[in-house]
Target: NAD(P)-dependent alcohol dehydrogenase
Amino acid sequence: MRITAAVSRAAGAGFTLETVELDPPRADEILVRIAAGGLCHTDLAIRSAITPEHGPVVLGHEGAGVVEEVGGAVSGVRPGDRVILSYRSCRRCGRCLAGRPAYCEQSMRLNNSGRRADGSATMRQAGAPVAGSFFGQSSFATHALASTDNVVVVADEGADLATVAPLGCGFQTGAGAVLNVLRPDPDARFAVYGAGGVGLSALLAAKAAGAASTVVVEPVAVRRELADRLGATAVIDPTDGDVVAAVREATGGGPSHALDTTGVPAVVADAVRALAPTGTLVVVGLGAAELTLDLQDLMLNGKAVRGCIEGDAVPQRFIPELLDLHAAGRFPVQELITTYSFTDINRAVADQRAGRAVKPVLVW
Ligand SMILES: [Zn+2]
Ligand SMILES: [Zn+2]
Model:
């Protein structure tokens, strides 16, 4: 079928809306009419690596929409279902069977190869393959082909698809790092570095978990103001003096639970330094490959540093939990999103880069 997709062709070039041919669903595939798609940093990081040899690429991995058609082997998802699309996993490898699909052995092939697992393309232009299947969706398009392993049915008829679309990646990443990995107790002193969509969804999750203090470190003033409005117990501008001392003071001796969303080695090193003894820092930011840490501080104070992808979440279990929290008013992610028409996708990118929008969501 002919669909419209936001196509990327080169690093630094804008998205262009173009007509693309999308395959009909195979037996194990689900055709979704996309209503909304969040813009995640990973889309832009991948776009920045596109060279002419890749040919046209369709990104987008926080899609939400309505199922139009399902293949004959699909069960549990029906035409008309409202769905959120998340990341793919094989459901067969040791890590998937151990309940850790974010670390699936087939993850790169299923999410980042631009093809189906068997190497076939899902999209074409003038007969030539287009790189699609990004996170098993490529949802910067009017329609996407997904699979049962990355489709989550939205049971709540009142849920606004534009608001909940980023649960598929960014909000799941922040909230999951807190609720699935850090698991703060009511005495917890929580700090998050970076107040983008991931950092602020982590803040909301820490508040929902009842953490005693919730500190947000963020250089952009409008984002600090938003964190303050969302109920952070303290907001810190890291450009304003000694950030380690400021975080320690705001948490009464250092965070017991902390999250870095920046991926900036100097920020991560400071976040480890600021931790309370026996505290844990989870890192979810994709940044420089190397990091220098104070080994003595880490060892003598029993501190832990741990990486995490997609909030360690099993989407079909965790996203419904977040939807319930959202419906109960305890996970108010509507405060984080700014909606744009898909025709304004390049403006959405510019606004996110400039700090004017925390989480842009594109709608058809
Ligand atoms: Zn697997
Ligand atoms: Zn993402």
Summary: Residues 89-90, 92-93, 95-96, 104-106 surround zinc ion (ligand 1) (CB under 6 Å).
